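Second attempt. The first submission of PrgI family protein had a stray character pasted in from the spreadsheet, which I only caught after the job came back as garbage. Lesson logged: always re-copy from the clean sequence file. Corrected sequence (323 aa) follows.
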Amino acid sequence: MSRHDDRADAGRVRMPADVDAPDKVLYGLTFRQLAILAVAALAFYGVWRALHQVVPAPVLVGAAVVGGGLVFGVAVGRRDGLPLDGWLLAAVRHARAPRALSTTDTTSKTPDWVQAPTTRVMLPAPLKLPADAIDDGGEIRLGAARAAMVATTNVNLALRTGDEQAALVDTFGRWLNSLSTPTQIVVSAQPVDLHSAARSLAHAAMQLPHPALTDAASDHARFLDDLAARKDPLRRQVLIVTGTSAGERGEHTARRRADDTVRALAGLGVTTRALDGPAVTAALAAAADPYRPPRPGGLAAPDTVITSPTPHRRHRHGRSRPT
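This time the job returned cleanly.
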């Protein structure tokens, strides 16, 4: 090993991957797991004290073994990266949650002239969203607070040298240390619509000046179409959400922090941009339904006034003139 590698290794600190893992308290179990087992043990002891003179002891012991095994599995088991007890609690909440939600007022009574249904009808529950509005600049109104979004690309540290990696980590660390409000980094996989790209490429191939270029473009369009039919291509999307506190004053504060984030991350060699109103609307719509293909032309912001094309007036001679 060279002297340069020794200096590089001396400045590194080995950090475990599970830094958010809870601490082990006793026998490799966390406090939450010990609490679940302790409550179950007290419950089994209470059942034993109440039924040991009525029910035969082997029956109680067998029930205790089966119940203890189930409780131990719930306490130490995991599914989908979550503790099994939390996963079961989330499943119960999901089963009891209303299936239909509405942004309109659902507490109003039915008028007297409307015939009441004979069977019970499930009414939609009120839909309470944290965001109230999105302005043209891309600021999201969250009650008294504001938020803005920054879209960025990623960087591959494995292809950089040791000095370059240290410089990139130092730049990213300076940006993290400069944060004074809650900031969210969202990394997601979004589907890519290769069919539209293949159609556009095939249409543009017919306008190329040379037959060889036309054949190459058409062949690539067929490759994209076949790839979209056989695979599910995905792209990685990285969004940074900068926000303000509830008591913080000042207009467009979240937008200015988004611009500061763009300037701070420019040293990483990534492409960053602060999203405007339509781009923020499209990002939120994609997060709510990531498997829906993007709409042509994008989505309008919630407060945008949508108008129809200007109608044409037809004159007597059959020619139309815009009004």
